[in-house]
């Protein structure tokens, strides 16, 4: 059942190249230059009327939604807000018929997410569900459904469902951009070409899992650590931090790199591990200076960056390289080492990786 892997989580991490390919599947036009989404019932006229997008989800799916915000804003130039589903209904969100609400749920059964969907519909919004389960409650009640073809996810800690949600957001973001004309055709073709290369690049990262395992064993001896990142990297470190907490029970916090000096820097002491994600070229210099701030206070820094960045290499204690892609697509690669880090840290601590304490795979109570 685990296909030779020690745990479902590891199996599911290694299934990601396939999950990416299956989720892209027939949604990429045979010319390879644009996206087709035949499952969407929304008209082009409707798409042109969208004034704002709300992305609502819980946990890991919420973190995918944070990346989704960057994707939709960058590609389609529509303002996007993200909300944790258990908060959404209670803040009187401004939902109008011109609001597109995107709910994200692997199981499609999360009670808070379903309640948010119903509230959105009650207010007259159109709802798109991004879900891994065909026929789930969320899929049945939404106006449109984008299925992530990750296949069944058994481990409590979500991995391939998260990355498939990212792929769904790339496809949907491109589709909106094509319809709205917010990006030229050549750029869209470039993004599509890069998307198609992601599965192979994930395979390259997985081939170097040994290096990440060593880092994880080092981290597993600590009780506290930090993740830092800027922009889209911040959304990814939030997910890396959740994954680590969830299965290794090591406390960590994810911070936007530039925010550390507004308080949290007080917690940086000799030997504390800091995992710094730096994949965005336009933010690179600033991130390096944030790394120097924590280094100067004794932190031990693991830097995750794309190949060819020597500047960072000099600033950190250990480097983990990921293959190059366009900056917007980097989350689909950079999260892989963070998943492996959580997995191996949990293993090093002798925890039940697939069934962490106090947690359930599907949360059907509010
Ligand atoms: C973390 C994790 C949870 C879920 C959350 C939402 O690894 O799996 O945070 O992401 O409970 O679940 P779904 O996506 O089924 O709505």
TrEMBL record:
It is found in: Cytoplasm. Its EC number is 2.6.1.16. The active site is at residue 361. Residues 42-182, 215-356 form the SIS domain. One of its GO terms (molecular function) is glutamine-fructose-6-phosphate transaminase (isomerizing) activity. It catalyses: D-fructose 6-phosphate + L-glutamine = D-glucosamine 6-phosphate + L-glutamate. It comes from the Bacteria. Signal peptide: none annotated. Coiled coil: none annotated. Keywords: Aminotransferase, Cytoplasm, Glutamine amidotransferase, Repeat, Transferase. The keyword Acetylation does not apply. Catalyzes the first step in hexosamine metabolism, converting fructose-6P into glucosamine-6P using glutamine as a nitrogen source. Homodimer. This is Glutamine--fructose-6-phosphate aminotransferase [isomerizing]. It comes from Paenibacillus baimaensis. The chain holds residues 244 to 609 of 609 of the full protein.
């Amino acid at each position: 059942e685990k296909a030779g892997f020690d745990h479902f989580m590891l199996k599911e991490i290694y299934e990601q190249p396939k999950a990416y390919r299956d989720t892209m599947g027939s949604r990429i036009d045979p010319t390879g230059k644009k996206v087709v989404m035949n499952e969407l019932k929304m008209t082009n006229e409707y798409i042109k009327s969208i004034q704002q997008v709300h992305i609502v989800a819980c946990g890991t799916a919420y973190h995918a939604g944070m990346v989704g915000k960057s994707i939709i804003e960058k590609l389609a130039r529509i303002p996007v807000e993200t909300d944790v589903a258990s908060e959404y209904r209670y803040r009187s969100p401004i939902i109008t018929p011109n609001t597109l609400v995107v709910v994200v749920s692997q199981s499609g059964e999360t009670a808070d997410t379903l309640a948010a969907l119903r509230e959105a519909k009650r207010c007259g919004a159109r709802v798109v569900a991004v879900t891994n389960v065909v026929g789930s409650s969320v899929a049945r009640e939404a106006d449109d459904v984008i299925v992530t073809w990750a296949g069944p996810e058994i481990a409590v800690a979500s991995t391939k469902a998260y990355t498939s949600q990212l792929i769904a957001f790339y496809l949907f973001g491109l589709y909106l951009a094509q319809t709205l004309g917010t990006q030229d055709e050549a750029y869209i073709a470039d993004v599509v070409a890069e998307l198609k290369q992601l599965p192979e690049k994930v395979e390259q990262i997985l081939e170097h899992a040994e290096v990440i395992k060593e880092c994880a064993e080092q981290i597993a001896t600590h009780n506290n650590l930090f993740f830092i990142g800027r922009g889209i990297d911040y959304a990814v470190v939030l997910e890396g931090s959740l994954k680590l907490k969830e299965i290794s029970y090591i406390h960590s916090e994810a911070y936007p790199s530039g925010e550390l000096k507004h308080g949290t820097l007080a917690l940086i002491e000799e030997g504390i591990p800091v995992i710094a994600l730096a994949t965005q070229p336009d933010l690179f210099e600033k991130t390096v200076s944030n790394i120097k701030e924590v280094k100067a206070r004794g932190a031990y820094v693991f830097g995750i960056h794309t190949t060819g960045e020597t500047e960072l290499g000099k600033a950190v204690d250990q480097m983990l390289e990921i293959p190059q892609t366009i900056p917007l697509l980097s989350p689909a690669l950079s999260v892989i080492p963070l998943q492996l880090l959580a997995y191996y840290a949990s293993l090093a601590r002798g925890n039940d990786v697939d069934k962490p304490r106090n947690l359930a795979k599907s949360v059907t109570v509010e």
